[in-house]
Structure formats: structure tokens, C-alpha cells
Write a structure and sequence with these properties.
CATH superfamily: Hypothetical protein TT1679
Number of domains: 1
Protein name: UPF0340 protein PS396_01555
InterPro entries: Antibiotic_NAT-like, DUF436
Order of helices and strands: HEHHEEHEHEEEEE
Number of helices: 5
Largest sheet: 9 strands, mixed
Shape: globular
Family: Belongs to the UPF0340 family.
Helix content: 25-40%
Distance between the termini: 71 Å
Organism: Limosilactobacillus pontis
Radius of gyration: 19 Å
């Protein structure tokens, strides 16, 4: 059996290191992909655990809520990787609701835990989150906005599940004269006019 205290601690540590590098702001969306089967050392989708789902989702919410960052929890392929979000978040970001409710083998334990912990949960089909955490190789890349930036943390696994962390950045545009850091216009360059 997996030690839930170790799972919570590893989740908190990995999330903390990601947030230190991702520079999220209040109102941003954070996506969680979670295979509780993988956390237990089993193949994804074969041994879901509501206790692990609850522990991880609650740990993440306890960190994100005070920061004003919104959590979206991705479901499995059996519900087309739909995401649980708060209804207010869906409205704020213009996300279309889809009709499905998670169960342990379709959506998964993480989504059920989100439904239990959110005030007014609904499912949406797609989002563009600013960052995310993938516990168990659930493929969250489609939910993090372009351009995605891998983030390295000291937490490589949670339980037995491999972890991946993503942040994002704005696209660089322009040609050879473009600049990518602010240099106030009214400052003269040395030797110039």
C-alpha cells in the first residue's frame, strides 16, 4: 500500500518547485493529470484509488486556492480527456460545458475528488492552462497553452508514478530586429544620439 503522507509530501514539493519556476498569477489555470493506478505501481487505468485521488487533489487545492490559481483536473481517454473545472472558471474563460460525470473507471479518482472538493464543478472539453502537473504519464500537453516549457523539479516520482511538469511562455515573434526584453525607448545607447 502506498503511504498517503509520502504522496502528499511529494505532491506538495513538486508543485512548490513548479510554481517557483512557472510564475503563475491569480486567475491562471493549472491542469492536473493523474493516474492513481500508476501511483500504486500498476498500469494506468487498472487499479484506481479514490483515497490517493483525494489526497493529491486536496493537497494541490490547498496550495492553489490561496494564490487564486484555478485547478482543472483532466480525465482519462474514456471521457476524451475532458476536464473538471469550477463553473465560474468556465464562464470566465469562455469554456463550453460538456455532459459527462466521472466514475472510477471513466474519468478517474482525480476527477471524482475534484467533484467532491469544488464548489460548482462542471466538465469542459478543452482548456489552455498556463501550467500543469502530470502524475503517471496521462498526457496533459494538449491542455497547456503553446509554447510549453518543461520544468525540472527534484520530485521525479509520486509513489511509483513518473511525474512531468510544464509551464508556458508567450510565443517569440518578429525578425532580426525584434527584442525580447524591455529596454526603455528614451534611454540613449552609449555613443549614440
Amino acid at each position: 500500500m502506498v503511504d498517503l503522507n509520502q504522496v502528499k509530501q511529494a505532491t506538495k514539493q513538486g508543485l512548490s518547485e513548479l510554481l517557483d519556476q512557472a510564475h503563475l498569477q491569480a486567475g491562471d489555470i493549472f491542469v492536473l493529470g493523474l493516474s492513481t493506478s500508476e501511483v500504486q505501481g500498476e498500469q494506468i487505468g487498472n487499479d484506481s484509488s479514490i483515497e490517493i485521488g483525494r489526497a493529491i487533489v486536496k493537497t494541490i487545492l490547498d496550495t492553489l486556492r490561496p494564490l487564486g490559481i484555478h485547478l482543472a483536473v483532466q480525465g482519462c481517454q474514456h471521457i476524451n480527456r475532458a476536464l473538471v473545472v469550477e463553473r465560474a472558471v468556465a464562464k470566465e474563460h469562455g469554456l463550453e460545458q460538456v455532459m459527462v460525470y466521472p466514475q472510477i473507471h471513466a474519468g478517474g479518482a482525480g476527477q471524482i475528488a475534484a467533484f467532491e472538493n469544488f464548489e460548482d464543478p462542471i466538465e469542459v472539453e478543452h482548456i489552455q492552462a498556463q501550467a500543469g502537473m502530470d502524475i503517471g504519464d496521462t498526457a496533459i500537453g494538449m491542455q497547456v497553452k503553446f509554447v510549453q516549457v518543461p520544468v525540472r523539479t527534484s520530485v521525479k516520482t509520486i509513489g511509483a508514478a513518473h511525474t512531468t511538469y510544464l509551464s508556458s511562455r508567450p510565443k517569440y515573434i518578429g525578425g532580426p530586429r525584434a527584442k525580447y526584453s524591455w529596454d526603455p525607448f528614451n534611454q540613449r545607447e552609449e555613443g549614440g544620439q
